[in-house]
Design a protein that fits this description.
Layout: E1 4-8, H1 13-23, E2 28-33, H2 36-55, H3 61-68, E3 71-75
Parallel strand pairs: 1-2, 2-3
């Protein structure tokens, strides 16, 4: 099981990220985007989803706090930069190489 997950915020990334965090609340989630606005919206959505889940008694408050912890909203990744992680290879593919996958 991974300890960290990274994804592009964009339009649907926050929804996928929230789903992952509710299933694995202790995982560290990185939401990345080159535009700051989707990251601000993602943070608001996460807080809103958690609040609604607690209010509707679908989630306990302590789990909501775990879900909202360990989220990194990263703005400004350039196409020539790499995301580095603690995995065995020590790096991820360049975003420009993702088209080749």
């Amino acid at each position: 099981m991974p300890n960290e997950v990274a994804m592009i915020a964009g339009t649907i990334g926050p929804d996928i990220g929230y789903y992952i965090k509710t299933a694995l609340p202790n995982i560290k989630l990185y939401l990345v985007d080159v535009v700051e606005e989707p990251l601000k919206n993602a943070q608001k959505r996460f807080e809103g989803y958690a609040k609604k889940a607690v209010e509707s008694k679908k989630m306990k408050e302590d789990k909501a706090k775990e879900v909202l912890a360990n989220i990194v909203f990263h703005h400004g990744l350039q196409p020539d930069q790499e995301l580095r992680s603690g995995d065995r290879s020590g790096h991820r593919k360049h975003s420009s190489q993702a088209e080749d996958l």
